[in-house]
Amino acid sequence: MKYIIVTGGVLSGLGKGITVSSMGKLLESRGLSVTAIKIDPYLNCDAGTMNPYQHGEVFVLDDGSEVDLDLGNYERFLDTSLTKDHNITTGKAYRAVIEKERRGDYLGQTVQIIPHITDEIRNMIKEAAEKSGVDVTLVELGGTVGDIESMPFLEAVRQLHIEIGHQNCMFVHITLVPVMSVVGEQKTKPTQHSVKELRAIGIRPDAIVCRAKSPLSKSIKEKISLFCDVPTTAVISAPDAQSIYRVPLILEEQGLTDFLLERLGVPSSSEDLKEWRAFLDRLENPESEVSVAIVGKYTHLKDSYISHFEALHHCGAFTKSKVNIRWVEAEDEKPGGTAIQLEGVDGVVVPGGFGKRGALGKIEAARYARENKIPFLGICLGFQLAVVEFCRNVLGLEGANSTEFNKNTPHPVVDILPEQKGVKNLGGTMRLGAQDVIVQEGSKAQMLYESTTISERHRHRYEINPDYIKQIEDSGLKFTGRSPDKIRMEIAELSDHPYFVASQFHPELKSRPARPAPLYVGLLKAILEGKK
Ligand code: GLN
Question: Nearest residue CA, atom 8 of ligand 1?
Answer without folding.
Answer: 352
